[in-house]
Amino acid sequence: MSEQNYKAYSYRWVVLSAYMLVCLVGEIQWLTHAPVARAAEAFYAGQFNPNSIFNIDFLAMSYMLVYLIVGIPASYVIDTWGIRKGIGFGAALCGISALLKGIFADSFTAQIVFQLALAISQPFLLNGLTALTARWFPLKERGTAAGLGTLSQFLGIIIVMMLTPLMVATDPGKANYGQGLHSMLMIYGVITFIACLAAIFLIKEEPPTPPSEEAYVRHKFTDGLKHILRQKNMWITILIFFIGLGIFNAVSSMTDSIAEYLKVKDSDGLIGGIMLIGGILGALILPILSDIFKKRKIFINICLLGMVPSLAGIAFAAAITPTPEAAYTIALISSFLLGFFVLSAGPIGFQYAAEITCPAPESTSQGLLLLSGQLTGLIFVAIMSARANTYLPFLMKFFVVIGAAALILSLFLKESKPLANLKNK
């Protein structure tokens, strides 16, 4: 196909916006109970054993557990049948399950069932990002598009972190402790259902003509997977996500427990909320700069360099300050920086992986990165929540050490060749 037949259509922003909306509500559903975990335990008192695996923390942990099973099949569906069917299936399952989760809000068993259904929908949504950007966006815009797509996930998390405690009674000293959970879940369920319908109708498979030449050449799923696993830089990137994304998933899922560790009285959700504010700013700035300067590696290095002291600030805040208030302040500042650097590394890393493994299908490379982070996130959350969060302080300090290891690993990455070729044109 000649160069003049490549075109970036304005409808690409409609497709991206619809995708961002469905990812936003999907992330809300992931963490509906996490910011008010202690209040939710009071609401569902008597319906579950707090010492069993099927406790409040399991609702968030289920997303990571299910991803280990569904992540690669979801990528196969997207790569084989396309983003419209793959993402559309995820959106339909997400919308229906969220609505039922709100309708049956008083039953903890129902919460488990519909949360598992929502967890199945998540890989079909998240794994479609780089495939969507490759079909609709030219290479010079894909870091930005991936950043915006990831930004929507952060927005969903920050909404649930900041608004949920306002809708649920979180003061353990009051008689209505835990009330408001039913209406909160119903409100989120209706909003999610509407957003998923919009995504189903607005997301199209591809434009009439591709946005750039490399959008046309793609391996089949199995051939692409073999090609991906032969790339040394991809293995390094997987290890980096194995650490960095795992830490993010753990901290996001355990924000209320971390606040309790810092001796914060009630479930205010600020640690998670501030982290996501930083992530939003990072996702707006760093991926765009990566496109402008046509570099990926150095920005991955910068993100991981900022991650280590940010983790240390949260992990050691209680030990280096005389009062819980001072420790909480340090933890909030550190959470903001952690969000800015770590969460902006995600879209840059996804796009980097897609470029270094081209012509492998993009959702396969992205799915492997997400799978690695879900695996460690699941392990971290299981350990942090065991025996009434006994091991949480140790894990927070351990994150600093493995964060430094991820930084060292990132120094061995090679720059993206497709991006370097674009720079030379």
Molecular structure report:
- There is one protein chain.
- The longest helix has 33 residues, at 324-356.
- The protein has a single domain (10-424), classed as MFS general substrate transporter like domains (Growth Hormone, Chain: A, Up-down Bundle).
- Helix 4 packs antiparallel against helix 5 (108-126) and helix 13 packs antiparallel against helix 16.
- It has 17 helices and no strands.
- The two termini are 18 Å apart.
- It is mainly alpha-helical.
Task: Give a nutshell description of this structure.
The protein is an all-alpha fold and 425 residues long.
CATH architecture: Up-down Bundle
- Please provide the ordered H/E string of secondary-structure elements: HHHHHHHHHHHHHHHHH
Give the total of domains: 1
- Looking at CATH, the homologous superfamily is MFS general substrate transporter like domains
Sum up the structure in keywords.
mainly alpha, Growth Hormone, Chain: A
List the helices and strands and how they pair.
Blueprint (H helix, E strand, L loop, with lengths): L11 H19 L6 H7 L12 H26 L1 H21 L4 H19 L2 H8 L5 H26 L13 H22 L18 H9 L2 H22 L1 H7 L8 H24 L3 H24 L3 H33 L5 H24 L6 H19 L6 H8 L1
